[in-house]
Amino acid sequence: MTVVGVAAVGAKVEVDGQGGVFGFVDQTKHPSWWDEGVAPPRPGDKLHVCVLDSGREPYPRLSALRVDIGIARTLRREE
Question: Is the pLDDT at 79 greater than 80, yes or no?
């Protein structure tokens, strides 16, 4: 994912290679919220994310937190 917009509440991201497919990373689901040593998201940043809520409108809700990505990987292996 590439960050395409930033607001006080989070970041709009676009799926790399899928122009026009977007998602949203809430500020609390970005590592900078939890770690002062991590820079806040900026347009052009690349993020590795997992899907938290694919049905959220107008964009699916995503997380860039390692713990959430780890949980998503575990759940996918269990399917």
Answer: no
Q: Residue 78: what pLDDT?
A: 85
Sign of CA dihedral 22, 8, 2, 65: negative
Q: How many CB atoms lie within 10 A of CB 5?
A: 13
Contacts 24+ apart (CB under 8 A), 1-5: 1/25, 1/46, 1/47, 1/48, 1/49, 1/62, 2/44, 2/45, 2/46, 2/47, 3/41, 3/42, 3/43, 3/44, 3/45, 3/46, 3/47, 4/43, 5/43
State the chain's maximal CA–CA distance in angstroms.
Answer: 36
Residue-wise pLDDT for 8-32, tens only, equals 999 999 999 988 999 999 999 999 9
